[in-house]
């Protein structure tokens, strides 16, 4: 039995979700998989610090993250050695030892850190284990050009061209889409789903998801949406494990009987199936999951960088509406919930442009090319 290592990182949940989707697809093919955070090979303390630093910045200082993203773009343009690449070489030796000692036949990375560490390892020609990178945003992220892997799986032809311009041979790049869990492509009956979730069948249902690190933006958005609805409809808010945010939302004016704060759940696909419209940050994974679930999307509170690129792509392709304020988000959401033609036009674009079987395509390509050096 073949054995693969999946490298991901908890800087946002999207990378982990993509890793789980690829892992599940590989396991369906009879491959044994193990999932790890590459930074943990430096130390567990380093892993926790990186995750905490990133998530705190995204939650409280998104503009600072945007500035860092722009700096990354300047490094890419200058072709100077990247400090991010150097940082990820620091744990390359123990990572290589782990791969070789455990007899892994291949490595799949859904986060840049793993891709950079594996690039450093692959500098030694005696290392022969193939490695692939999976991009989880609809743009070629800064520092991806630092990497040199066996192959890459990207969401768009445009991102393929961008990566090729950074020096990666085109024959190593395959456009598959972003991998998501197969549960999102199962579209259960909305009426039955609402009954199972104890939701009203004849009312509009608005679902708000801001991700674990975007939770601080929820309160103002919920207040604005509740005021616009004027006592109509039901608002579902995914608050994860943020108990304080749950209490604050439930105390909002107009929340009683109209707003339900949903704690952490592994059944997000059921809430998407029950909703008339989703309001969400434009993370690459969340947006893809929603498009595969075929629910109308309003993008809001985009963090400068990857998320603004994701929102721009989705909105220009007709797969979402991109709101620049909470008031605009509420107005867009109400339009999509009440205008069947606009909602169906958006769903049709999602069905046309998003590949729900990306995880399986990636798994098949990885297994077919495990002995070679191109996907």
Task: Describe this structure as you would to a colleague.
This protein is α/β, with parallel strands linked by helices and 375 residues long. It folds into two domains: 191 residues, Glycogen Phosphorylase B (Rossmann fold), CATH 3.40.50.2000; 172 residues, Rossmann fold, CATH 3.40.50.2000. The protein has 16 helices and twelve strands. Strands 2-1-3-4-5-6 form a six-stranded parallel beta sheet, with helices on both faces. Strands 9-8-7-10-11-12 form a six-stranded parallel beta sheet, with helices on both faces. Strand 11, helix 13 and strand 12 form a beta-alpha-beta unit. Helix 1 crosses helix 16. The protein starts with a strand and ends in a 7-residue tail after the last helix.
Shape, per Cα inertia axes: elongated
Q: How large is the share of residues in beta strands?
A: 5-15%
Order of helices and strands: EHEHHHHEHEEHEHEHEHEHEHEHEHHH
CATH class category of the largest domain: Alpha Beta
Name the poorly predicted regions.
371-375
Alpha carbon gap, first and last residue: 21 Å
In CATH terms, what is the architecture of the largest domain? 3-Layer(aba) Sandwich
Helix content: 40-55%
Describe the sheet with the most strands. Answer: 6 strands, parallel
CATH topology of the largest domain: Rossmann fold
Mean pLDDT level = 88
Q: Can you list the strand order of the major beta sheet?
A: 2-1-3-4-5-6
CATH superfamily of the largest domain: Glycogen Phosphorylase B
Rg calculated over all Cα atoms: 21 Å
Q: Supply the helix-strand structural class.
A: alpha/beta
């Amino acid at each position: 039995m073949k054995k693969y290592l999946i490298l991901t990182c908890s800087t946002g949940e999207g990378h982990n979700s993509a890793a789980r989707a690829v892992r599940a697809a590989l396991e369906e093919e009879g491959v044994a998989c193990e999932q790890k955070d590459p930074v943990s090979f430096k130390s567990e303390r380093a892993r926790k610090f990186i995750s905490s630093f990133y998530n705190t910045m995204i939650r409280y200082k998104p503009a600072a993250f945007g500035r860092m993203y722009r700096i990354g773009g300047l490094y890419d343009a200058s072709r100077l050695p990247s400090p991010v690449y150097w940082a990820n070489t620091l744990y390359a030796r123990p990572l290589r030892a782990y791969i070789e000692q455990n007899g892994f036949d291949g490595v799949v990375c859904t986060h840049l850190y793993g891709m950079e560490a594996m690039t450093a390892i692959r500098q030694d020609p005696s290392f022969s284990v193939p490695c692939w990178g999976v991009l989880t945003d609809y743009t070629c992220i800064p520092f991806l050009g630092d990497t040199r892997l066996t192959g890459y799986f990207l969401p768009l032809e445009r991102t393929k061209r961008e990566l090729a311009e950074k020096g990666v041979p085109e024959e190593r790049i395959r456009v598959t889409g972003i991998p998501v869990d197969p549960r999102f492509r199962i579209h259960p009956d909305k009426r039955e789903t609402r009954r199972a979730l104890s939701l009203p069948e004849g009312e509009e249902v608005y679902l708000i998801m801001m991700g674990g690190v975007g939770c601080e933006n929820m309160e103002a958005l919920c207040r604005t949406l509740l005021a616009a609805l004027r006592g109509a409809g039901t608002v579902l808010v995914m608050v994860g494990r943020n108990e304080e945010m749950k209490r604050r939302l439930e105390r909002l004016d107009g929340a009683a009987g109209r707003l339900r704060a949903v704690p952490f759940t592994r059944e997000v696909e059921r809430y998407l199936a029950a909703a008339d419209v989703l309001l969400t940050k434009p993370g690459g994974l969340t947006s893809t999951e929603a498009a595969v679930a075929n629910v109308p999307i309003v993008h809001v509170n985009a963090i400068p960088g990857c998320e603004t690129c994701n929102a721009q792509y989705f909105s220009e392709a007709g797969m979402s509406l991109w709101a620049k304020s909470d008031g605009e988000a509420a107005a867009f959401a109400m339009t999509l919930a009440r205008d069947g033609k606009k909602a169906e036009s958006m769903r049709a674009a999602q069905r046309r442009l998003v590949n729900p079987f990306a995880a399986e395509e990636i798994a098949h390509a990885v297994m077919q090319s495990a002995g070679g050096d191109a996907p």
